[in-house]
Write a structure and sequence with these properties.
By secondary structure, the chain is mostly helical. It has one domain: Orthogonal Bundle (MetI-like fold), CATH 1.10.3720. 78% of the residues lie in helices and 0% in strands. It is built from 11 helices and no strands. Helix 8 packs antiparallel against helix 11.
Length: 272
């Protein structure tokens, strides 16, 4: 019997869950390093109120950071990718900034913005901004220019070219950039909470790690994993919802690009 990729993934997850429970119980892994899954879940449910309150803090910081990192990254990337001269000027600069390990600059953010949510939001926003912006700019810059030329020659207005050609053609890359940038935002918030904070899931991880309470540490890590998986699932849902739009956009662009056998442009009207 041949398993589908989905079935294989579920089988791998089930195997990891079983190993997580069996290996510590059998003494093959010290519970200090990896407590049994049931013990971890019991610790998490036992302190559900505390985890929920700290999770709300993390979710708030992630939501605000997403707006600045992904929203700003997509906006700036669209502008930079649409203007070749601007792209040649700024992309090498942004790529150089992206190569810098930003975690070493976090003490600077805490000195500027304090140890509250502000420093976490700034750090996570910058952490997720660069991959989102660079990916969006690359996606828009690689759109076939013939599509835009053909649509413009057929009388398409600027809004029609953006909606019917640019956006559908760039959506796959934009969503991929959004997925990477959003994941880095989550990582940035949790890491910054682990370094200096008095609330949040990262703070719980550091606090319980200090007293060697491994079950509660792993319960907090499970929450972070759930948050990351939920975000990835939302992006996949957006990809499925925009699939028909992308196909329609490519069809419209190909129609606008249609030519006679001799190579001349066939007359066609652009739908409003």
């Amino acid at each position: 019997m041949k398993l589908t990729p989905t079935q294989t993934r579920y089988l791998i997850i089930a195997a990891l869950v079983v190993l997580w429970e069996v290996l510590p119980r059998a003494g093959l892994i010290a519970p200090l390093f990896l407590p049994p899954l049931t013990q971890t879940l019991a610790a998490g449910f036992g302190d559900a109120r505390a985890y929920a309150s700290h999770l709300l803090v993390t979710l708030g910081e992630v939501a605000v950071s997403m707006i600045f990192a992904c929203g700003g990254g997509i906006l700036v990337g669209a502008v930079v990718g649409s203007v070749p001269k601007l792209g040649r000027l700024l992309l090498p600069l942004f790529s150089g900034f992206y190569a810098v390990p930003l975690v070493v600059l976090y003490p600077v953010f805490t000195a500027w913005f304090g140890i509250g949510s502000e420093s976490k939001i700034v750090f996570a926003s910058i952490y997720g901004f660069f991959p989102t912006m660079l990916g969006t700019a690359a996606g828009i810059a690689t759109i076939d220019p013939h599509y835009l030329v053909a649509a413009r020659s057929m009388g398409a207005t600027l809004p029609q070219r953006i909606v019917r050609v640019v956006v559908p053609a760039a959506i796959p890359t934009v969503l991929s950039s959004f997925r990477i940038g959003g994941a880095l935002v989550i990582v940035g918030v949790v890491v910054s909470e682990m370094l200096t904070s008095s609330a949040g899931i990262g703070y719980l991880i550091t606090s319980y790690r200090t007293v060697l309470d491994s079950p509660r540490v792993f319960a907090a890590i499970i929450l972070v994993l759930i948050l990351a998986v939920a975000f990835d699932a939302l992006v996949q849902l957006a990809e499925r919802r925009t699939a028909a739009w992308r196909q329609a956009g490519r069809a419209a662009a190909k129609t606008a690009r249609g030519t006679r056998p001799g190579g001349a442009m066939q007359p066609a009207s652009v739908a409003p």
